[in-house]
Specification:
heterodimer; A: 327 residues; mainly alpha; MetI-like fold; 2 domains; two-stranded antiparallel sheet; 18 helices; 2 strands; flat; B: 520 residues; alpha/beta; D-Maltodextrin-Binding Protein, domain 2; four-stranded mixed beta sheet; three-stranded antiparallel beta sheet; 15 strands; 14% strand; membrane (chain A); MetI-like (chain A); transmembrane helix (chain A)
């Protein structure tokens, strides 16, 4: 870290250089710093190779979104069709439904789910007894290691109308049975509760780490000034982990794409498809089950662009509020 | 190569001997089996030596649908390899994501030499088939004595533009019917229903009249699952006279849901559902859960494949030895007629992608292997395993050997998905009927052939159907479920039909109609 900084300082005297010369100086500096830190740069190489092979090369396949891809002809020999697949996507009545559903679930993730691990870690942080804290932590991590199939199946058994425990209780209390599994109203609550159930505990890990890094002296000073527990939480803990929260929020937004194909696919049925079908499940049925590779690629491509735009917006917003952002 | 073969053979002989020893140790009455085993052993060895061992075995790569939770052991694979001088490289793919895997293999140009697929996939693959990506096999068929025995009518159902590209796996045309709790019906003094009204009455009585005499309200009539085709719905829609997927009116091909009979069927189910005569969650019920409800005495009526009564009875009597089942097929609709929908005579077809072959001689060798599987001997080995070890003769038919059911389930049954043809053409044994209700079910399956309703689009083409079909089907399936649950009314259902038309349905109807008229 100190290497490049030193170099930089040496060159800050006000010398008047032409644009070209400036550029050249910069170039020389860069080469110098690379030479100086060549081992560090070497350590970057595996990462770069990974990204190149697994993230950049496959992008070549995106061109089938603009072709009528026939596997036996190969990617290059298939016919170009221009924007036909995109036109089909935007003209279909499905499109707006899927778009809306994807954004709704995304909104739920952001507004309902995102704050929960933060609140949970603040609460965990207040626990005095160490062994109790540890065991609670371990217990809330566990659901993360269960697959969605297990979680959805458990929900199914609990919520079914044919002898499910929840509807049994409701009936005993004198309420009519509620059709949780096959209604569009209950899809969203069910979805988000399951996400919280599985991921909330796991999400606390990074926040707890950030909280433990907060300077103890700040708390001591606050206590001297007579701040209570809530005051300390509000004025010290939260501001201290603010940048972590922002970075995680931006990353979360980048995940607008990953609403959990498996999860949603398992929850879908005829009565809730209208609110539950998202891009991921649509790509799966259109692409892999019906073998319409080009069309599915076009849909996936579009989804990717939406995600990219959202991340860029969020990043800009973060910078505006004086935070670091992710790039 | 030879050494490997030899060691394999030793291993097989070893296991057989070992198991005979164990069997012998079990008691005196197993002696017959031991002898049979020894004989089988000897005859196998002699057969192998008469095969031309100098010939390099052909490697056959294939995909296969796996219907059991685990991939089978090597026993039968080794047997087949040894007997027919082949090397089998089988990719077992769980049936649930078979379509996905097949499409992936196709997209990445890694299809194996033998590719089985169901009817829907076959339609989807018509485009590459027309583009000459698969072997046309008709010219070769006559070279093979046993393959040329395949039923020509069913082969015709698998033709693409009049050409033959596939071998088929035969299935009875219609196994649909009703299985019910006979002991419940006897308790309440109900006769087997013969009309839809009586059927409804049975469902009502099984729900409300305490058929199991428990004194509490713990039973329902019908148990159904999410599947509108192989569940109860489609069979019931046949009773009402609905066409099979598509119907022809005045030379025009129309989808089933544009027929009043379809609506009547939905109303029928809706009535049953709202009265609580069937499971309330049926649109999200799996086949396992549906059958479990029937086996453990929660429900009394099951509409589907009548042959299922065997496994249902076996499992149910373990829980409740008094459970008695009955089967019937004949249920008249309001018009006084009985109809039942039919499949095209095959369950799946086997295709041979050209990209996986070097030349036509390789194809000949693969076809030669299938030719041998169409002999009674080959088909019996594939479907039943080894006599004396997995099955025993009983009259005309065969029976699994009870003590060895575990091995049967693990090593033999999965291979059923490799079968081609059917008992009538391959001459293999059929299951002996030790359970008389199953025998009745088999009889009714044959009787069904008098009342069949065929799908008129089996040999018709529609490009739009391939592109939009699944999506549109899903739309109508969803609407059908919603209507039956009372979540939408008839106007909304009809609105969905209009939507179906405008999103590609109209084009599909036009294309099918054109294709239909061209064939007339």
């Amino acid at each position: 870290m100190s290497g490049p900084n030193l170099n930089y300082n040496q060159n800050t005297e006000p010398v008047f250089l032409s644009k070209q010369e400036k550029r050249q100086v910069k170039k020389q500096e860069m080469i110098k710093s690379i030479k100086k830190n060549k081992l560090l740069y070497l350590m970057l190489v595996p990462g770069l190779i990974y990204f190149f092979i697994y993230k950049y090369i496959p992008m070549y396949g995106l061109i089938i979104a603009f072709k009528d891809y026939k596997p036996y002809l190969g990617i290059l020999a298939s016919d170009w069709v221009g924007l036909e697949h995109f036109i089909r996507l935007f003209q279909g009545t499905d499109f707006w439904i899927i778009f809306r559903n994807t954004l709704t679930l995304f909104g739920l993730q952001l507004v309902v789910f995102f704050p929960i691990p933060i609140i949970l870690s603040l609460m965990l942080n207040e626990i005095r007894s160490n062994w109790y804290k540890r065991s609670v932590q371990t217990l809330i991590y566990i659901p993360h290691f269960m697959s969605w199939v297990v979680i959805v199946s458990i929900s199914y058994v609990v919520l079914t109308l044919d002898g499910g425990i929840v509807n049994g209780l409701l009936e005993m209390m004198g309420f009519g049975p509620i059709n949780f599994l096959m209604s569009s109203e209950w899809f969203h609550p069910m979805y988000i509760i399951q996400v919280i159930w599985r991921e909330a505990g796991w999400g606390t890990i990074i926040f707890l780490a950030a909280i433990s890094a907060v300077n103890i002296e700040l708390y001591e000073a606050a206590r001297m000034d007579g701040a209570g527990r809530l005051r300390q939480m509000w004025h010290i803990t939260l501001p201290s982990i603010r940048s972590v929260i922002v970075v995680l929020l931006i990353l979360k937004i980048g995940d607008v794409l990953e609403l959990g194909f498996e999860h949603v696919y398992l929850l879908l049925n005829g009565s809730n498809r209208e609110v539950g079908e998202i891009f991921d499940t649509y790509v799966y049925t259109a692409g892999l089950k019906q073998g319409q590779f080009s069309y599915a690629t076009a849909v996936g491509f579009f989804k990717g662009i939406v995600g990219l735009i959202l991340v860029m917006l969020a990043n800009r917003l973060a910078k505006k509020f004086g935070e670091e952002g992710v790039y | 190569m030879k050494r490997i073969k030899l060691s394999k053979r030793l291993a097989v002989v070893g296991t057989v001997t070992l198991s005979s020893m164990i069997l012998a140790a079990c008691g005196g009455n197993n002696e017959g089996n031991t002898e049979a085993n020894a004989n089988a052993d000897a005859s196998n060895n002699s057969e192998v030596s008469t095969e031309e061992l100098d010939d390099e075995p052909v490697t056959i790569e294939m995909m296969a649908n796996l219907h059991t939770p685990e991939t089978p052991g090597d026993f039968l694979k080794d047997k087949l390899e040894e007997k027919y001088n082949v090397e089998l490289d089988i990719q077992w793919v769980p049936d649930g994501n078979y379509e996905e895997r097949l499409n992936t293999a196709f997209a990445t140009d890694t299809l194996p030499m033998v590719v089985p697929m169901g009817f829907d996939m076959f339609n989807q693959f018509k485009d590459p088939i027309r583009a000459d990506q698969f072997w046309e096999i008709e010219p070769y068929l006559e070279e093979f004595e046993n393959l040329s025995k395949l039923n020509p009518e069913i082969l015709d159902n698998t033709r693409v533009d009049g050409k033959l590209y596939s071998l088929y796996q035969g299935r009875p045309l219609s196994r649909q019917g009703v299985i019910y709790r006979k002991d419940w019906a006897d308790n309440l003094g109900i006769e087997e229903p013969t009309t839809t009204e009586e059927f409804m009455e049975m469902a009502r009585a099984f729900t409300e009249d305490d058929p199991n005499g428990s004194g509490s309200d713990d039973t329902i009539g019908l148990t159904d699952r999410s599947d509108l085709v192989y569940g109860a719905f489609k069979t019931m829609s046949s009773w009402f006279g609905t066409p099979n997927n598509w119907g022809v009116v005045d030379g025009e091909v129309k989808p089933e849901f544009m027929f009043d009979e379809y609506i009547e069927t939905m109303d029928f189910v809706k009535e049953m559902h709202s009265n609580g005569y069937m499971n309330q969650d049926f649109p999200v019920t799996s086949k396992d859960d549906q059958q479990a409800m029937f086996k453990n005495g929660g429900a009394g009526i099951y509409v589907g494949s009548m042959g299922d009564v065997l496994s249902i009875h076996t499992d149910a009597t373990e829980l409740n030895p008094d459970a008695e089942y009955g089967v019937f097929n004949y249920v008249e609709g309001p018009d006084g007629e009985y109809n039942v929908w039919a499949i095209p005579g095959f369950g799946s077809v086997v295709l041979f992608p050209k990209s996986a072959y070097e030349d036509e001689n390789e194809l000949r060798k693969v076809l030669a292997f299938y030719d041998k599987l169409m002999t009674p001997e080959g088909a019996n080995l594939l479907v039943w395993g080894e006599e004396g070890r997995h099955y025993e003769m009983e009259g005309e038919g065969v029976n699994w050997i009870e003590d060895n059911l575990n091995e049967v389930d693990n090593d033999i049954r999965p291979f059923l998905s490799l079968e081609i043809g059917e008992p009538a053409t391959s001459g293999r044994y059929e299951m002996a009927s030790t359970y008389d209700v199953k025998a009745e079910a088999d009889k009714l399956t044959i009787e069904n052939e008098e009342y069949l309703v065929h799908d008129p689009t089996i040999t018709l083409d529609s490009e739009s159907h391939i592109t939009y079909g699944d999506r549109l089907d899903q739309m109508m399936n969803d609407a059908t479920h919603q209507y039956m649950l009372g979540q939408i009314d008839l106007d909304e259902f009809n609105a969905t039909v209009e939507e179906w038309k405008s999103e590609g349905g109209e084009a599909i109807m036009a294309e099918f109609t054109e294709s239909y008229q061209a064939q007339q």
